[in-house]
Queue: 2 jobs
Job 1
Amino acid sequence: MTSLSELKNFLSLPKNITITAHRNPDGDAVGASLALAHYLKKQNHDVSVVLPSEYPESLFWMKGIHDILVYDTEEKQALDKIERAELFFCLDFNSLDRIDKAGEAMLKNKNAKIVTIDHHLYPEGFSDLLISDPQASSTCEMIYTFITDLGDADLIDHTIGDCLYTGILTDTGSFKYSTSSRLFRVVADLLDRGVDDYHLQNLIFNSMTEKQLRLLGHCLNNRMEIIPEYSTGIITLTKEDYANFDIKRGDTEGIINNLLRLKEVDVAAFIMEQPTIVKISLRSKDDISVQELAQKHFRGGGHKNAAGGASFHNLTATVNKFKEILPLYFQKKTFH
């Protein structure tokens, strides 16, 4: 299977299909997975969504989300779906290590075809059909295009539209990043199909808990450092912070974006000390790229303005390493 037409022919009869997306799934990963699942179920396919780890509580309202199998906690059921699959859709990731043990299990199923739909740079060659577009705002935008390219735009109802809009909203930061005229045409069509923009914005961005708001205040008041000579801001979280605030998956979503609200900050880093690893998220403004920095120094990657990675050093060493490599990527500013 090397073309969209071959895939369309393959899907002409009902199939057992498993959809997966990356560990620590965000709005785009979950939205793309559910949108594609709803679409395929309309064509009488037996569809399962298997994610490596839990999805954020802020997305619990999405239709079909509670049918998702989480490999970490439902390994037996997830493996059954993976072993029975005739076709895999891999969404919003470019390398198999982003889905951990689920990727190993997927490759053991020699009878299944693999289709990847993703907007990250440098995709690995593990798929039978790769649909890659680094210029896309999100994988959800690509799922919209995928469905329309198959000639099934009429099947996009408000349920599918809600899922797609969720991924677009979250990956673009409410249309602040990675936008294009093409994206806004997609969004206009989704609104025409019944998507309620105000309602979704409210569900996604106005649903913080008191704990999450207090955590944000702690980060800004106690864990923020500005390095003016490199127009860089850093927020860190320690293991103690995780314990004191009882931080769960999704609680830190969006915190890094507050650094970019500062006029003098062009590069933002959010560095989090977890039990066995230190995670780093990077964001930037305009033409400043953080992708190469994440790839070369923190075993990661991503997009020009949004990337991430990890370190096996402790928090202090990781922060120091990040500061040491800033001069390699960003021009020092002088002040008079």
Note: The domain at 210-329 is CATH 3.10.310.30 (Diaminopimelate Epimerase; Chain A, domain 1).
Job 2
Amino acid sequence: MKMIKAIIRPERLEFVKKALENEGTYGMTVLDVTGRGDQKGITLQYRGRIMVIDLIPKVQIEIVIRDNDEERIIQVIADAARTGKMGDGRIFVLPVERSIRVRTGEVET
């Protein structure tokens, strides 16, 4: 199994959720996060002053999938999250040794 962590723009979350649903993937954890990457923040003008915001609000989606679904799910997320502008996000893939369902104790490896 693999865990996919995708950090994306908040406004793209609904597009990603819908695309994953169309692929039959429903279970996910969604977290509000802040961070910065190559764009190093943004500059805004507020009340005549320049403000530098170096931690940008993002959304992190965590999904655990079977190994053979990895490339397909990565492509679905990337296509749905892409705007073509800097700050679209990043996708990470991590190994998952096992998963235990709390209610039943069922173990999946």
Note: The chain has a mean pLDDT of 93.
